[in-house]
Design goal:
Helix content: 55-70%
Largest sheet: none
Distance between the termini: 81 Å
Shape: flat
Oligomer: single chain
Order of helices and strands: HHHHHHHHH
Radius of gyration: 25 Å
Number of helices: 9
Length: 267
């Protein structure tokens, strides 16, 4: 049987072997795209390293400790950059694989969000590079600088940049989650809004757990996440349509008394 490339229809019925064959094909596709992106990044590794070193204050350059470390560190940076480049393909292949489990209505609802995911991810990468990283490096490298002879190890710095950027990119997927669960009818916008404080608490905890994040950088990371949360909640209120027969939730409680009970015939 030839490998599948196009998404499977909802009506299609595949055997376990066919599902595994499809999964293998999609994994191979992602690996091929990753390999091409990795080769491109290795070809332009000098420009890539210059871009990543840009957020360092005072034109500092990371140092290495070992004969093979410049080579292995360059490989690691190229791999991180290739992951970012291959992310849109990964999203598409994941969507295409789970497509058979979705009804036509669910596919119609989720498809716009799948298209939004790569753009939000790249927006998170850009925000992390231009806003989070300069603030983080400036604060962390100047903290107690009179007490330390501060040098920057290349391997640690590049891992810090990559993990922070990818984490922020993933956190920028918050609007997709909120819009998806409201459009699918799992939760209503009113239910999410009533638990806003818990959502903000979760955002604060996740921002605090970012690699090497200090209090200032944590607040900088939280600000766009809260804006995205509130914006997506507002958009979900506009797009929300209750199912037929489902009463719309009222935003304000009412204290008006109900209709009077009929008099009892035994009164």
């Amino acid at each position: 049987m030839p490998p599948r490339v196009k998404p499977v229809d909802f009506e299609d019925r595949l055997t376990l072997v066919e599902h595994l064959d499809e999964l293998r094909t999609r994994i191979i596709t992602v690996l091929i795209v990753f390999g091409v992106a990795f080769a491109l990044c290795m070809w332009q590794n000098n420009a890539l390293l210059d871009i990543i070193n840009e957020p360092l204050p005072d034109g500092r350059v990371p140092i290495t400790f070992g004969v093979a470390e410049p080579f292995t560190t360059t490989l690691t940076v190229a791999a991180y950059a290739a992951i970012v480049i291959a992310f849109p393909v990964l999203i598409y292949e994941a969507y295409a694989f789970v497509l058979p489990a979705l009804s036509p209505r669910e596919k119609k609802v989720l498809l716009p969000f799948m298209l939004m995911a790569p753009f939000l991810f790249l927006a998170g990468i850009v925000f992390a590079y231009f806003v989070v990283m300069p603030a983080a490096t400036d604060f962390l490298l100047n903290f107690n600088e009179s007490e330390f002879d501060i040098e920057i190890r290349a391997r640690d710095y590049y891992s810090f940049v990559a993990l922070t950027s990818i984490s922020v990119g993933i956190l920028f997927q918050i609007p997709i989650g909120i819009l998806a669960v409201t459009r699918l009818g799992i939760f209503t916008p009113q239910q999410i809004a009533s638990n806003r404080r818990y959502a903000i608490l979760v955002i604060a905890v996740v921002a605090m757990l970012l690699p090497g994040t200090d209090p200032i950088t944590m607040l900088i990371s939280m600000a766009p996440l809260i804006v995205l949360f509130e914006g997506s909640l507002l958009l979900s209120r506009i797009l929300y349509r209750p199912e037929v027969g489902e009463p719309e939730a009222s935003l304000e409680p009412t204290d008006s008394p109900g209709p009077p009970e009929p008099p009892s015939e035994y009164a």
